[in-house]
Amino acid sequence: xxxxxxxxxxxxxxxxxxxxxxxxxxxxxxxxxxxxxxxxxxxxxxxxxxxxxxxxxxxxxxxxxxxxxxxxxxxxxxxxxxxxxxxxxxxxxxxxxxxxxxxxxxxxxxxxxxxxxxxxxxxxxxxxxxxxxxxxxxxxxxxxxxxxxxxxxxxxxxxxxxxxxxxxxxxxxxxxxxxxxxxxxxxxxxxxxxxxxxxxxxxxxxxxxxxxxxxxxxxxxxxxxxxxxxxxxxxxxxxxxxxxxxxxxxxxxxxxxxxxxxxxxxxxxxxxxxxxxxxxxxxxxxxxxxxxxxxxxxxxxxxxxxxxxxxxxxxxxxxxxxxxxxxxxxxxxxxxxxxxxxxxxxxxxxxxxxxxxxxxxxxxxxxxxxxxxxxxxxxxxxxxxxxxxxxxxxxxxxxxxxxxxxxxxxxxxxxxxxxxxxxx
Length: 424
What we know:
Layout: H1 2-11, H2 13-24, H3 36-49, E1 53-58, E2 72-79, E3 82-92, E4 110-112, E5 115-117, H4 121-141, E6 146-154, H5 165-170, E7 181-184, E8 192-197, E9 199-208, H6 223-243, E10 260-268, E11 285-294, H7 300-317, E12 323-331, E13 334-335, H8 341-354, E14 359-363, H9 369-374, E15 381-383, E16 398-400, H10 401-419
Parallel strand pairs: 3-6, 3-7, 7-15, 8-14
Antiparallel strand pairs: 1-2, 2-6, 4-5, 5-16, 8-13, 9-11, 9-12, 10-11
Helix pairs in contact: 1-4, 1-10, 2-4, 4-10, 6-7, 8-10
């Protein structure tokens, strides 16, 4: 039966390509959340025509949701002939902005040399298309399957996933008894099983000063200079400390096996977005967003205290230094056990399709597995999909068509193994 599925997937090559191209040409840019509804409706029409029960679910009152930019998710379910487990393929439909440096139309879906180019090809509309083709081929070859198969296209993963998987998980859509196994087709390379991700703490630090005329800065107190002292202390003390912390988690790439801190943005003084001449002001506020990625060996309280202790030291040692710090997001590291059913099923699929042993990795950044584990309390979840991780968010992003074909075969194999565990 699996050989028949593989042949069907091969025969659907042009369909897989056209599906990926169609998805890429819907510019679901986040922020702000463009074209979510048209993309969800496109997926819904396709899956409904193939017998799935389809729901469009808006993440109401989640960050960024509005009538102009509704957080529209699509969830499709196909029941088998007999009761059994449910396997769910979850892909995010949002993409980051195109940015500069492209030699292809970012939303053109151009095909060249066995690749499809465009924003979201790799991260992760190619994976979404591969999972759809895998499931369609599977049910065509084996309409008599047990359990149920679900496919979802969810929003906002690139900005935390709160209007997408987090919202759906809060409604019970990623919990037992509805769902048993989840595969997220993120681009971790076709022969890798991604068991989880590092932790993340996002926070905003604000330093304060006093307004004065820019020609007489000695009458005021510059909040930007105070923030400069924060950056200096990070360079001198915090960054060397983080570089000394290493993990036994199989994180890729190599540089992510240590703790990291990214200064996401700094804003002080004039209002953002104003392109006229500035006024002569000493800024009384400066804000910094930090993105701290931490390891399974670290405790979140310690992660936060390292930054707070640095700020407290400046408050004591630097004249007129005052600050505030605000949590934005925190997610603990997660790592699915290698013996979990979904890990074994996908691993066997890689061995069968590619005749090689899979690699087991941890993602340097978080993805929607965090919400499935934290809110849904479902831990039989991994990321597996086509695409080269290093191409995500880059100019001239692409996905290799052959990789999508092979990954689709692995997903179909895993589907059968999880729905009929005694048949293989």
